[in-house]
Amino acid sequence: MKPDTIFRLKDINTQIAPAKALQEFPEIHWIDKGNCYFASGTKYYKGDLKNGAWQFSTWKNLPDSADNIVVDYQAGQIAYTINNNLYLSDSHGKAQQVTNDPDANIISGQSVHRNEFGIEGGIYFSPKGNLLAFYHMDQRMVNDYPIIDWSSLPAKNNNIKYPMAGNRSHEVTLGIYNPMTHQTIYVKTGAPKDQFLTCVTWSPDEQFVYIALLNRAQNHLWLNQYNAVTGDFVKTLFEETDPKYVEPQHPLTFLPGSNTEFIWWSQRDGYMHLYRYNTDGRLLNQVTRGPWLVNAIAGVNARSKELIITATKESPMEKHIYAVNWTSGKIKRLDETPGYHLADASTDGAYVIDRYQSDNTPRKIDISATAKSWRKNILTASDPLATYDRPKVESVTLKADDGTPLYGKLIYPTHFDPSKKYPVIVYLYNGPHVQLVINSFPASGNLWYEYMAQQGYIIFTMDGRGSGNRGLQFEQATFRRLGTAEMDDQLKGVEYLKSLPFVDAERMGVHGWSFGGFMTTSLMLRHPGVFKCAVAGGPVIDWSMYEIMYTERYMDTPQENPKGYEDNNLLTKTKNLKGKLLMIHGAQDNVVVWQHSIRFVKACVDNGVQLDYFVYPGHEHNVLGKDRVHLMQKITDYFNDFLKK
Fold it and tell me: What pLDDT was estimated at residue 622?
């Protein structure tokens, strides 16, 4: 395979003559080998290969305020939102206003249910582009919550709708718009109105829409079929229940050339696996099985009847690429090396781009045939850290109280001397859907860990029960008792650290953000004296103040589980604090709202407890550049002040 230049940035700039020349190569979206498009802001351009030369021209100019943009290139359409309403630039270039709701709290075409259940957007073109489905959310009944912009004088308030556990939730329907008739129908999903609408999927023939309805208790799911023309309910294909919770995360994947057979994702056997169904609701076969998870469907090979997937079959700390026959379940591994592999499959599923890392492999990209007849490396990155003073990283496996293996990493100080005793920082998250310990580059998992190792610290991190990628039993161990089994597991890590002769048990610190901030604060209050100091970033303090979709899945409602909420309500435990605690929060955080830590500060004052507190403008997930460096230096200095003395 010889490299070739398809087109150059200067050639694109010459042809499209934008008001401001593109300074970097745009992300190219390929339609086929002779057609592509790309965007610059809200301006869209298309490329056509004609007579061996690429020609670029303006395709669509969307309003500058366009957001949530979804492209249907085959039908020549783009859907987008402006504020709370949905618009369509149709195949003739004409703008159609799909919704016209004057109330800003009735929102169309945007993600709903606080981005839970795998929902990433709210616009769904039908396969041939003849219809447009969209989420329609009424949140007028949800309580207002103030988010203050402190950067202006006087400060400005921006009210958002925040559905807190146990309170009113928003109400969602699915609209279907016909660009030819300009008519919208709404799917008759029925009551209760605060149910969750997930896994929205078009049938390939555009006759039906499938929606997985999930009750608010999140323990009962119905996969329903609806008529796409009338919105009428057709039938329930099947139901799923679980005494704790059911969590749908993926739409249906219809198999090539079929309007009736599809792949359904389910954790019903304890692990996320794939099941082949038909539209009569009959289970044809379980495609994958075993004590491991499927992570993604990367492509489909119709010729061999294979799904190209990534999964944890080799190790829960790795991802590998497989081809699995959807009728027989026969599975073959497509990659060759240990590590964390991500896959992009060709349209026909005959080839895979394999992008992977491991503890000692910064980055490699291979292209291979799924028939395993050919493989070629196209990129092997050099080690960007080769010249740095790196620490030793050691894998650790411990056992929870019930015998479950727990995977962690121990990072030694650089220039380690086994005759010395070193301070320790435990970094944790330990919440649902997150996994810190994986076989990826760098082996430490985080360059801040390595910086602290250069400062003479031991760093320890471990994924306890409740965290991601280990199966349903592992995750559900925390059900109705968030912060209990997780802390028991982290304390197993503390026991292990104390058993090491080079660990100074009197100089131990703990640090985490978001759920990790909750865990950090919980350890300081519910197990006081274990750690000398701690830094909690953006912590949940009282779960009754967190969002419905996430909290009620793991905790039920405060009305149903008052003891569970009270046990982990940290506002009532401030008097237990021993040691130094620095709490950090972003003033504009709209996920873990600032009121969590503000109320905690007040509880500390009321109980005469000393707390160090730092607030910064912005959201904790968006601390970038110099602000990020400043924040991490403050955290480093805090640990130095109390663990180095």
Answer: 60
Q: Are the CB atoms for 331 and 274 separated by under 8 Å? A: no
Instruction: Give the residue ranges of the chain where pLDDT is below 50.
Output: none
User: Which two tokens mark 293?
Assistant: 């998870």
Query: Shortest CA distance to 99 belongs to which of 174, 32, 158, 4?
Result: 174
Residues 322-340 have pLDDT tens digits of: 999 999 999 999 999 999 9
**364-to-110, 233, 312, 383 alpha-carbon distances in Å:** 36, 49, 19, 11
Buried b (16+ CB within 10 A) or exposed e, 583-603: bbbbbbbebbbbebbeebbeb
Residue 589 annotated among the catalytic residues of the structure: yes
The CA distance from 543 to 166, in Å, is 10
CA 139 to CA 131: how far, in whole Å? 25
What pLDDT does 565 receive? 98
Residue 545 phi, psi (nearest 5)? -100, 10
Catalytic residue among 170, 335, 589, 596: 589
The answer for residues whose C-beta is within 8 angstroms of residue 163's C-beta and 6 or more apart is 114, 139, 142, 143, 169, 170, 547, 548, 549
**Residue 112 in contact with residue 170, Cβ under 8 Å?**
yes
pLDDT at site 11: 87
Q: Is 144 a catalytic residue?
A: no
Q: Please tell me the predicted confidence (pLDDT) of residue 617.
A: 79
* pTM for the predicted model, two decimal places: 0.95
The catalytic position among 514, 522, 585, 597 is 514
Catalytic residue list contains 621: yes
What is residue 630's predicted lDDT score, i.e. its pLDDT?
86
User: Which residues make Cβ contacts (< 8 Å) with residue 511, sequence separation at least 6?
Assistant: 425, 426, 427, 428, 520, 534, 535, 536, 537, 635, 639
pLDDT at residue 621 in the model? 58
What is the Cα–Cα distance from 200 to 223, expressed in whole angstroms? 10
Angle in degrees, 0-180, between the axes of helices 625-643 and 447-454, rounded to the nearest 10:
40
User: Packing angle between helix 515-526 and helix 485-498, nearest 10 degrees?
Assistant: 70
Q: How many CA atoms lie within 13 A of 604 on its CB side?
A: 20
Q: Helix %, strand %, coil % for the chain, to 5?
A: 15, 40, 45
Task: Name the residue among 491, 495, 546, 498 with its Cα closest to residue 519.
Answer: 491
Q: Determine the number of helices (DSSP H) and then strands (DSSP E) in the chain.
A: 9, 39
Distances (CA, A) of 141 to 106, 168, 511, 586: 10, 7, 37, 27
